[in-house]
Write a structure and sequence with these properties.
105 residues; mainly alpha; 40% helix
Length: 105
């Protein structure tokens, strides 16, 4: 089993950072990049043991890069929402750009 860790150091109070996080997978979602990726869905309200995904499901070769890219986009949004936007926003790998173009065809 692969273990993938996504992390970002975000400056800001817990309230400032937590506000967009608490909106995740709600109709008022301010964190997930729904304009670029399928919406995030949870099987229950956000909290411990909440699980779920959007429509990104496939074999590891396809799944991993398509899983990582929207999470990195969401972390960029979290940093921006806290008033501390990243100096360099996450860039999509060539493989992700290829998979997205094939998916749109």
């Amino acid at each position: 089993m692969a273990r993938i860790i996504h992390q970002r150091r975000i400056r800001g109070s817990a309230d400032t950072v937590g506000e967009p996080l608490n909106s995740l997978a709600t109709p008022q979602d301010r964190l997930w990049p729904q304009d670029q990726w399928p919406p995030m869905r949870f099987d229950r309200s956000l909290g411990v043991a909440a699980g779920g995904h959007g429509s990104v499901r496939s074999v590891a070769l396809v799944y991993r890069p398509l899983h990582d890219a929207p999470l990195e986009d969401a972390l960029d949004r979290a940093a921006s929402a806290s008033g501390d936007p990243p100096e360099n926003f996450a860039e999509r790998a060539p493989w992700v750009r290829l998979l997205r173009s094939v998916g749109r065809a």
